[in-house]
Design goal:
about 550 residues, mainly alpha, MetI-like fold, 23 helices, about 80% helix, about 0% strand
Length: about 550
């Protein structure tokens, strides 16, 4: 016979696994449903898919392949080079540059895109000034081209590679340099023969993150009029009103994300590496000459100028020129709706992450691990794809119930989409802190007769509160600048700052979009500063 305690344990374990399964179903179920409905297109929408597949899909495949190929080369090269200068070389002002190289990662791609397109379009004041001087700069610089897209995307995405490459270089240890010097290798030979192969897994991961961000981008490529699957999905959704065609186009992005993920795993399995000693702090085995220092300094200044200084200055110039003409009380409504949505979605997502951690603690095992992984896969998928998946699945769920009004679009759609997309960000932040908590705390609590719920509430919840707040701020910053899901899932008549930017930039009104853009930029800077200070306080 089962004792009461044994029965309670089994019941709690089963309940925990059921709740994990429900969360996983909510997060990954819409993606599977999207694949399923894409297998068959309604008869009245077949001509939509025939038009897209014959005239648009070949161009989308070509553009995507070209963008991925060029961006892989540029982001990895720039990120690795800057990390090499910071870690191994005597670059002047390296502490300042180390901080400045990271800031562009907080800038939305669409923000950087519309600033550069607005600055270098034919009728812009900058290009007009050069024409008046007899310099045909517009013939040399064409931002709305493949080169322009790659240039701007590289400025925004190289920090992914830089951060991970720098971490790998610091972990390479002194022993590698000592062995290289004993073999008579020069600093560059040491780097290419030893350090670079050792750091390959980190560099590949950073490059993969950059590519995934590019594949997921909607606002940036739409500003450049550069057709990718994200813009095509939106066009099929809004322009053709063909959900099935949008679903089928989304499957291409699922395939791209899957191939990228499997390729990274395959490479990591083939690569074996081990610790090479203590992490480096101030290793400068490559001492540059004065000429080398000046050239390196010029490169560092150029990167900071084009990725951060120039866009910020241009945004402030437009803001000062058009604020009095563009500003209206409607912007207060935009600010309120943007911050309200971001705060609510961030809180719910962070809370669900905390719930998952507690459920896995109550019911550990491979099944719980698999369900958790399935729930986290949304971060690898573009927002436009998740938007389609959420809409079609929730619409089917609610259309034949007393809640059928939800099938026409509501905050439920928007919050669910945000949660699926960013749950992994919140979970990993909190999980890292949870894993650092000694297991002895559990044993002590049990020895004192404390129940699981009481232990969680009195012991683990206070310890996880800082991580919860950190994940909440991170989620708020991510959701604040999310564009495709907001455009596709927002309730009728509901607008945010990102929607305002899209509407204005779609009409070429770059200057007017600067007000909403500056609000997002300043919000991101303030949020990042709070996050930095909060992290310093926790580490003190």
């Amino acid at each position: 016979m089962f004792s009461t305690a044994r029965f309670k344990s089994i019941f709690a374990s089963t309940t925990a696994l059921s709740l994990l399964g429900l969360i996983s179903l909510i997060c990954f179920g819409p993606i599977l449903f999207l694949v399923w409905i894409s297998l068959e297109i309604p008869a009245d929408q077949i001509h939509h898919w025939e038009f897209l597949s014959n005239s648009l899909v070949p161009t989308l495949l070509k553009n995507t392949f070209v963008l991925i190929s060029l961006l892989s080369l540029t982001t990895s090269s720039l990120g690795v080079l800057l990390a090499y200068l910071i870690v191994f070389c005597n670059l002047p002002g390296k502490k300042v540059f180390d901080y400045l190289f990271i800031i562009p990662i907080s800038l939305p791609l669409y923000l950087l895109a519309f600033i550069y397109v607005g600055m270098f379009e034919f009728s812009s004041p900058l290009m007009t000034s050069f024409r008046n001087l007899g310099i045909p700069l517009h013939d040399w610089i064409k931002m709305r081209s493949t080169g322009g897209v790659v240039f701007v995307f590289t400025l925004a995405l190289y920090p992914y590679v830089y951060l991970l490459a720098k971490s790998a270089f610091l972990k390479s240890g002194d022993k590698m340099g000592m062995v290289a010097r004993s073999l008579g290798l020069t600093p560059l030979q040491t780097f290419f023969r030893l350090i670079l192969p050792y750091s390959a897994p980190w560099i590949l991961t950073g490059t993969s993150l950059a590519i995934m961000e590019a594949l997921a981008d909607f606002g940036g490529v739409s500003v450049f009029n550069y057709d990718t699957f994200t813009t095509a999905i939106y066009s099929a959704w809004v322009g053709l009103f063909s959900i099935s065609s949008a679903a089928r186009l989304s499957c291409f992005l699922i395939l791209f994300a899957l191939l990228l993920y499997l390729g990274e795993i395959k490479f990591s399995q083939k690569t074996r590496f081990t610790s090479m000693g203590k992490s480096l702090k101030h290793n400068q085995f490559h001492r540059l000459s004065l000429t080398g220092q000046m050239l390196s300094l010029a490169l560092a200044v150029a990167v900071v100028f084009f990725s951060l200084v120039l866009p910020t200055l241009q945004l402030f110039v437009w803001f000062s020129q058009y604020f009095s003409r563009e500003w209206s009380t409607s912007y207060w409504t935009l600010l309120y709706q943007t911050f309200l949505t971001s705060l609510v979605a961030a809180f719910i997502t962070a809370l669900i992450s905390l719930l998952i951690i507690s459920l896995r603690k109550l019911r550990p095992g491979k099944m719980a691990d698999s369900l958790t992984i399935a729930a986290m896969l949304g971060y690898a998928l573009p927002g436009s794809l998740i938007a389609v998946a959420v809409f079609v699945s929730l619409q089917v769920v609610f259309q034949n119930t007393s809640f059928n009004w939800l099938g026409q679009g509501s905050f439920l759609f928007l919050i669910t989409g945000y949660m699926i997309r960013y749950l992994s960000v919140s979970y990993r932040t909190q999980q890292n802190t949870y894993q650092s908590i000694p297991k002895s705390y559990d044993l002590v609590a049990k020895s004192l007769g404390s129940s699981f719920i009481r232990t969680q509430r009195k012991v683990f919840l206070p310890l996880l509160t800082p991580a919860f707040l950190t994940s909440f701020i991170l989620l708020f910053l991510e959701i604040l600048k999310e564009m495709p899901m907001t455009l596709m899932l927002r309730p009728l008549g509901f607008n945010t700052l990102t929607v305002k930017i899209y509407e204005l930039t779609a009409e070429g009104e770059w200057e007017r979009a600067s007000i909403a853009g500056l609000f997002i930029l300043l919000s991101g800077m303030v949020g990042s500063y709070i996050l930095l200070k909060f992290g310093q306080k926790q580490n003190a």
